[in-house]
Amino acid sequence: QTHKGLVRLNQNGSIDTSFHIGSGFLSTIFGSDYHVNSISVQYDNKILVGGNFINYNGTNVNQLVRLNTNGSLDTTFSNSITSYFNVQKTVQQPNGKIMVLVLPTNSTFSDLSILNSDGTLAMDFSTPTIYNASNFGIQTDGKVIVTSAGYQGNEGQFNWPYNNITQGVTRFDN
What are the DSSP calls for 59-116, one per residue? Predict the structure, then answer.
């Protein structure tokens, strides 16, 4: 049996047949196949799935979906990620907000955004320009650490407001 993009396993390694994704993830962006890059389970056991896809089980979506515990699409989640972004990682914060790392298609810029728990964009957060961000983590004190691998001469730079440029790894308040 084919599972297109996601499968849930039981503790013994067998496929959980109560988890249904239907036709799964599809993409036609620039003729590419779908990619699921990020899976994170929220505190309520709903599942955030990010990647390079525009369709989940027959429903048009935008690179980020939230699934109910049975694999069905959570239609209460209003994805604020815009078209042609490749979601690299998602993490739910203790306050319920969701931090998302996206890489615009055909670009060296990355974007770290925060969504409210319902998927709408949190307007109280701004990030620097990040060149080719590769990962992030949230510390217990709420500060965010971001890593960046250099690309096309930018050498992993973060361009903070007021032209304060740092390289490689940086930490900032959330």
Answer: EE--SEEEE-TTS-B-TT----PPTTEEEEEEEE-TTS-EEEEEEETT-SEEEEEEE-
- Please, what's the b/e burial string for 12-30 (b: 16 or more CB within 10 A of its CB; e: otherwise)? eeeeeeebebeebbbbebe
Among the listed residues 75, 78, 72, 36, the one whose alpha carbon sits nearest the alpha carbon of residue 54? 36
- pTM of structure: 0.79
Residue 17: CB partners within 8 Å, gap ≥ 6?
A: none
Tokens of 82: 């815009």
Average pLDDT along the chain, 174 residues, taken 10 residues at a time: 80 93 76 77 94 86 92 90 73 88 62 85 69 77 74 45 50 62
Element (H or E) spanning 167, and its range?
strand 164-167
Torsion 145-138-92-117 (CA) sign: negative
Nearest to 116 by CA among 60, 63, 167, 66: 66
